[in-house]
Amino acid sequence: MAPSIRIGRLFGIDIGVNWSLIFIFALITWTLATQFLPLPEVAPGQPALAYWVAGAAGAIAFYACLLAHELAHALVARRNGVKVAGITLWLFGGVSRLDGEPTSAGAEALIAGVGPLTSLGVAVIAFALSQLPVPALAGDLFGWLAFVNLALALFNLVPAFPLDGGRLLSAWFWWRSGSRQRGVHSAVRIGRVFAYGMIALGVFALFTGSYINGIWIAFVGWFLLSAGGSEEAGGVVRDLLRSVPVSAAMTSPVVTVPDWLTVEQFLESVAAQHPFTTYPVHDPSGQLTGIVRLGDLVRVRAHRDEERLRDHARPIADVPTSRPDEDLAALIQRVGTALDQRVLVFDKGQLVGIVSPVDVAKLIAVRQALSAGRPVQGATHGPV
After folding, report:
1. Cα 53–Cα 55–Cα 56 angle in degrees, nearest 5
2. Which domain holds residue 224?
3. pTM of the entire structure?
4. Is 70 among the catalytic positions?
5. How far is 122 from 145, CA to CA, in rounded Å?
6. Exactly one of 41, 70, 101, 108 is catalytic; which is it?
7. Do 226 and 279 lie in a common domain?
8. pLDDT tens digits for 302-317?
9. pLDDT by residue (tens digit) across 171-190?
10. CA-to-CA distance for 20 and 159, rounded, in angstroms?
11. Residue 71 CB-density burial (10 A; 0-12 exposed, 13-18 middle, 19+ buried)
């Protein structure tokens, strides 16, 4: 998952947040301020402002704990030779975006297992702090953080992707079978049982009147079910593209156009002459300034003879880039859905190609056909 907002770097790792974080932050703050802290057995009789400040502090501390969990994954992954693209905090907690895969089942288990261990360690520290002679609100917040981190550690051990328990189970099957793909497949099958169980539990809760909990549990079950299928499909793709360079998929050469052309000029003189759907644009000095999409430009109805390509270009800084020798599977894992917006391929500073989802899909189809022993047709790259 790509971050919506980049907030900084820790230990050389980019940290970002997704917009969905706002919803959970508000929910945690509201729950602590109005439902938990004012309880008679917790910290009654405090001013309303104190509850809200403590609730916001608790929400911030909760995400700091999630960040510690994900940082542990990222640092151990990096120590085991796996590049880390960054960490994103989002609706369901956090995700470490890794460029590549562990080289052994042991490394996979270490990377997955250190997350729950970190949360367990944070729970112990928070519990110890809650026993110190601190103000009541602070002590209760530490106690809540201890409980939440313990729950986070235990929940992450559920054997279903993308949770750490699913990855630990996959590593065990990988070690037993000697094949990572077989390990993922076996772990996904077991994870489906847990996912369907959560969906059934959510439906049961709905019928017994616990609507909010029922919807939430069923939604988490559906998420686990979907994530498991995506993990298995992604594993198949990664196996097909293992050790395949980006140059095998990219479309080359690339047609670039001046960014000062009007939309009308572009459609008449450039788009009509080429089969491509994406074009990098450059300024008068030849410096690339962005990319334009044919689909976006044909939707321009008014003032085509006045609007310039630069007015509709995606800034070059927002376009993911690659090298011809980069591993294609690693690229796909790194850029994620940004591949839909195309990837520019540079070699020694020169633009040499573009990679699109169509390019990747065709290459996958070719390699699937080759692996199955079927004759291959239409193996040439098409428009990007």
Report:
1. 65
2. 176-240
3. 0.68
4. yes
5. 8
6. 70
7. no
8. 888 889 999 999 999 8
9. 999 999 888 878 888 888 89
10. 25
11. buried
